[in-house]
Specification:
Blueprint: H1 34-37, H2 52-60, H3 64-75, H4 79-92, E1 100-106, H5 112-125, E2 130-135, H6 139-142, H7 154-158, E3 162-165, H8 175-189, E4 194-200, H9 205-210, E5 215-220, H10 224-230, H11 233-236, E6 241-244, H12 252-266, E7 279-282, H13 291-308, H14 310-337, H15 339-353, H16 359-376
Parallel strand pairs: 1-4, 1-5, 2-3, 2-4, 5-6, 6-7
Helix pairs in contact: 2-3, 2-4, 3-4, 3-8, 15-16
Bound molecules: guanosine-5'-diphosphate.
Length: about 375
């Protein structure tokens, strides 16, 4: 265990106080133990608090340290932790799901973290328990930078009714989504009834987050003319609400104008949720204005979708797609990491590129080699989902 890999929540009292930094993957929940750091033999893996049944009980009764430990298990890239985490999830699944899951996206600088701070504090004041998670699509590639400012959401991080967890690092392909989804379930089991998932609009991250939440909002800035033209229609079609933020001071009037322009355009777009007309609203995260209206909108949305059955149907579909995505990830990784394929692929590639062989025939040979290699294995090779 190198220092580089040491979890940043090494000091327990600071564990939950950071916002959206990206943690390096850890190779075990013992990573913060001095013996582990010194590279010495770590004797006990199954300390009582890491027994999944005990941990599940502690999480259910709202133990924050237990929750942090559970999430660390989920985020770990070690195989034994994967299995412990799955046992833990199995135990907590019946307690999960009782929340409203809200996704928030917007370009860097749109005011997401300021908004979450204001919105999250508003909800905590009203008796809700708010968990803030982040999906940083760059975390696997760069070690994370976009959501990487530790000073974000300081006030909310100190609120005892809030829990802020930075984006996990990916480990392998697909890792970030799995970890975030599972973390969400753990937070729900711990009694958090509002889950906010923040992401920046990079790559596919908006689509990924849309697929894990009930309500999705897009934070935008004023100066709509250019922005609206530059904005992809597809992103607006994912949103259940568009929030024109920074509607304060000299900006207030232009924000209202921008809101109208968005409303006009939204009218012509396909709604993200059937039967729900996506509307634009203004807010000022700094002055805490517009927050009430946004929460009322979300509450109305929840009532509407629950009544129509869309709420439950969307969640069922999301879980089905999650299963599907993970199967595909798993198949792909198993296939391409298989030594027989690694060996054979360059030859087949050359043959098809040079036009000497039909593509399908190349695929056929590869699959035969893959299954032959699989059949030779005495036991299953390890999970590649981390
Ligand atoms: P993020 O990158 O989307 O998370 O954006 P931040 O929350 O870090 O905000 C970017 C900048 O906009 C910061 O300097 C904030 O102080 C400022 N900001 C955020 N919300 C508001 C707002 O409602 N009004 C004004 N005037 N500035 C804001």
């Amino acid at each position: 265990m190198t220092d580089e890999k040491k979890p940043e929540w090494f000091e327990p009292e600071k564990a939950d106080s950071f916002s959206s930094v990206v943690k390096p993957g850890v190779s075990g929940v013992n990573a913060d133990r001095p013996a582990a750091k010194a590279g010495r033999f770590v004797k006990k893996r199954n300390t009582p608090s890491l027994d999944p049944a005990t941990l599940a009980d502690e999480i259910k009764t709202g133990g924050r340290t237990a929750l942090a430990k559970g999430i660390t298990l989920i985020e770990s890239n070690a195989e034994h932790d994967f299995h412990t985490a799955q046992t833990l999830l199995h135990k907590l699944l019946p307690e999960s799901g009782r929340s409203i899951r809200i996704g928030i996206t917007g370009v860097p600088g749109a005011g997401k973290s300021t908004f979450i701070e204001s919105f999250g504090s508003y909800l905590c004041d009203r008796g809700h328990k708010v968990a803030v998670l982040a999906v940083d699509p760059t975390s696997s590639l760069t070690g994370g930078s976009i959501l990487g400012d530790k000073t974000r959401m300081e006030k909310l991080a100190r609120n005892p009714r809030a829990f802020i967890r930075p984006s996990p690092s990916g480990g392998k392909l697909g890792g970030v989504h799995r970890k975030t989804r599972e973390t969400m379930l753990l937070c729900e089991a711990a009694g958090f009834d509002v889950i906010l998932v923040e992401t920046v609009g990079v790559g596919q991250s908006e689509v990924i987050v849309r697929d894990m939440v009930d309500f999705f909002m897009l934070l935008v800035l004023t100066g709509a003319g250019d922005e609206l033209q530059g904005m992809k229609k597809g992103i607006m079609e994912l949103a259940d609400a568009v929030i024109v933020n920074k509607a304060d001071g000299p900006n207030e009037q232009s924000a209202k104008k921008t809101k109208e322009e968005y409303n006009r355009i939204l009218h012509f777009l396909q709604p993200a949720t059937k039967g729900w007309q996506t509307a634009a609203m203004t807010s000022s995260a700094i002055q805490n204005s517009g927050i009430d209206e946004i929460w009322e909108t979300i509450t109305a949305f929840e009532q509407f979708t629950k009544k129509s059955g869309i709420f439950g149907e969307r969640r069922r579909l999301q879980t089905k797609e999650w299963l599907n995505d993970m199967i595909i990830d798993q198949l792909q990784m198993n296939f391409f990491n298989n030594p027989a394929i690694k060996n054979l692929l360059p030859k087949v590639e050359n043959e098809v590129i040079s036009g000497n062989r039909p593509v399908a025939s190349g695929v056929d040979e590869l699959f035969k080699a893959f299954f032959e290699a699989k059949n030779k294995l005495s036991d299953l090779d390890s999970f590649s989902l981390l």
